[in-house]
């Protein structure tokens, strides 16, 4: 699906064709100078691929006992993620995907504990969990350790929806930050379902959260022993942190400051034209090629330039370096993009910047709100949105206006199983 927004269409993003202009003009002043930048290609894969079927897969089976409760926090207590804290002597055998609670060290009888866990969030999403390895948690009388560690470990999966930039942050990076920050780097990460390119992409973040080597645990033939272990990651909500649920009172403000330090980002606040006379605000357009793309991005660029903006265009994909994307986004004051994973990059914007989400056909208002509108406001960004009209969609070149794909796109998708 493609969209064409001319100047009138752009202005009509809001009632009376005028609401967007004041929003942009909040930063706009002076004459127009084009400062266009094109970074070829980070993932703009659709966050919308989460429209999947759900079922109660109940991946965890616990044996209730007082001794078990002393050692483990109930592994199924998190509403979204599979999460378990184990205290005491723990042995991890990667080649058999087994976590053993050692009776000799904990006093729990062998065989009294037995369950399985998939260490990934979205535990009720079948599509995600089918891509995550199951781990067995048992109690054993004695285990011989090949390597004994003095710091805790966190085991998490890089399966599921990793590779989609939105899910990389919402399912993994932010939950990992929430879960590991309490250790101040004194924790070791054990990765199952490893994707080496993912480690490379987020290496700076991982190194800031742990001072120890990351272990691709599935490939380990040796038994690793730890005094404490967390299986899975804590998850609060889409692309966000609920401070009331964070034991150490973390918030998205803390996370965004962490990102600025990690990537040495220079700007903490967006430009204020009243206070920064002579400086031009920068407007970033997130471009897409394969689906839900602009067909007249040049017109949009010229319109923004006429309003006094320096315009930056990036088309990130899975191979784009995150450092360059973070620096480019942080240098901008307004981010504009069609609903999709590319909008996730708003995490790098300075405070008080503006996010404008273009919402396509398809009755996805709920997703648009949950994935980007609410997170943007929680990040102390100013949020605006524009809902595409049928006449602005390239679908009108293939279907008549009264066709179901135009009139009720969501029902069309459900009926035909298409996206």
Automatic annotation (TrEMBL):
<keyword id="KW-0808">Transferase</keyword>
<keyword id="KW-0328">Glycosyltransferase</keyword>
<feature type="domain" description="Glycosyltransferase 61 catalytic">
    <location>
        <begin position="251"/>
        <end position="356"/>
    </location>
</feature>
<keyword id="KW-0325">Glycoprotein</keyword>
<dbReference type="Pfam" id="PF04577">
    <property type="entry name" value="Glyco_transf_61"/>
</dbReference>
<dbReference type="InterPro" id="IPR049625">
    <property type="entry name" value="Glyco_transf_61_cat"/>
</dbReference>
<dbReference type="InterPro" id="IPR007657">
    <property type="entry name" value="Glycosyltransferase_61"/>
</dbReference>
<protein>
    <recommendedName>
        <fullName>Glycosyltransferase 61 catalytic domain-containing protein</fullName>
    </recommendedName>
</protein>
């Amino acid at each position: 699906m493609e969209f064409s927004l001319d100047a009138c269409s752009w202005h009509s993003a809001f009632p009376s064709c005028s609401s967007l202009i004041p929003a942009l003009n909040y930063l706009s002043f002076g004459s127009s100078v084009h400062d266009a930048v094109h970074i070829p290609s980070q993932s703009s894969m659709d966050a919308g691929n989460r429209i999947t079927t759900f079922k109660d897969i109940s991946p965890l089976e616990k044996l209730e006992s007082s001794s078990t409760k002393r050692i483990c926090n109930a592994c199924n207590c998190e509403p979204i993620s599979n999460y378990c804290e184990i205290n005491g002597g723990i042995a991890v055998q990667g080649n058999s995907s087994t976590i053993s609670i050692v009776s000799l060290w904990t006093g729990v009888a062998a065989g009294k504990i037995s369950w399985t866990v998939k260490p990934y969030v979205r535990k009720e999403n079948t599509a995600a969990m089918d891509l995550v390895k199951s781990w067995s948690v048992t109690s054993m009388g004695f285990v011989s350790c090949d390597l004994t560690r003095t710091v805790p470990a966190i085991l998490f999966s890089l399966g599921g929806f990793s590779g989609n930039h939105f899910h990389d942050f919402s399912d993994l990076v932010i939950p990992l930050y929430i879960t590991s920050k309490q250790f101040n780097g004194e924790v070791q990460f054990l990765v199952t379902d490893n994707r080496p390119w993912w480690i490379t992409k987020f290496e700076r973040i991982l190194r800031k959260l742990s001072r120890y080597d990351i272990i691709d645990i599935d490939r380990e033939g040796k038994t690793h022993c730890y005094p404490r272990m967390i299986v899975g990651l804590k998850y609060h909500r889409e692309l966000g942190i609920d401070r009331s649920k964070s034991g150490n009172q973390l918030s998205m403000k803390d996370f965004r400051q962490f990102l600025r330090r990690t990537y040495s980002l220079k700007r903490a606040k967006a430009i204020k034209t009243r206070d920064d006379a002579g400086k031009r605000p920068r407007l970033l357009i997130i471009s897409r090629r394969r689906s839900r793309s602009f067909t007249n991005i040049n017109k949009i660029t010229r319109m923004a330039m006429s309003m006094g903006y320096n315009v930056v265009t990036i088309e990130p994909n899975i191979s784009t370096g995150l450092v360059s994307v973070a620096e480019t986004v942080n240098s901008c004051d307004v981010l504009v993009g069609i609903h999709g994973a590319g909008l996730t990059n708003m995490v790098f914007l300075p405070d008080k910047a503006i996010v404008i989400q273009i919402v396509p056909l398809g009755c996805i208002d709920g997703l648009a709100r949950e994935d980007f509108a609410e997170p943007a406001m929680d990040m102390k960004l100013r949020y605006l949105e524009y809902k595409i009209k049928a006449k602005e969609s390239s679908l009108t070149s293939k279907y008549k206006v009264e066709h179901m794909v135009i009139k009720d796109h969501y029902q069309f998708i459900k009926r035909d199983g298409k996206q």
